[in-house]
């Protein structure tokens, strides 16, 4: 009597690790430079090679312009807080501004 061989289902690409994606990409001749790619690049290259349309919605990341506009608004509020001698509020606003500035550096 023969043993039943289970069909191995391939894990969804999005759930694979970068190492697993590299192994898959090495089997596709159109993809070059596999070892220099990170996970998002590997996913995009494999999907492109297999003809998979990536219709997952991208995260609506705030643009740098919007962040800078928010920083300008907070700077105005900070000046007002300093004039009112509200040190606690000015400190909070300064931290928010710093956080947003870091966010613009990462987004650029």
Write a short abstract of this structure.
The chain has 108 residues and is an all-alpha fold. 57% of the residues lie in helices and 0% in strands. It has two domains: 13-50, no CATH class; 64-107.
- The total of beta strands comes to 0
Helix content: 55-70%
Q: Flag low-confidence runs.
A: none
Strand content is under 5%
* Largest sheet composition: none
Provide a descriptive summary of the structure in words:
The chain is mostly helical. The protein has 4 helices and no strands. The protein is rod-shaped. The mean pLDDT is 86.
Features:
108 residues, mainly alpha, rod-shaped
What is the secondary structure topology, with strand pairs?
Blueprint: H1 18-26, H2 39-50, H3 64-83, H4 87-107
């Amino acid at each position: 009597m023969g043993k039943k061989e289970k069909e191995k289902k391939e894990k969804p690409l999005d759930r694979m690790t970068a190492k697993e994606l590299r192994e898959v990409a090495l089997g596709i001749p159109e993809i070059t430079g596999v070892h220099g790619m990170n996970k998002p690049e590997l996913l995009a290259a494999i999907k492109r090679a297999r003809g998979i349309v990536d219709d997952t919605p991208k995260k609506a990341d705030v643009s740098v312009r919007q962040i800078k506009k928010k920083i300008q608004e907070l700077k105005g509020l900070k000046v007002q807080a300093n004039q009112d001698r509200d040190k606690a509020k000015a400190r909070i606003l300064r931290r928010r501004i710093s956080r947003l500035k870091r966010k613009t550096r990462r987004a650029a």
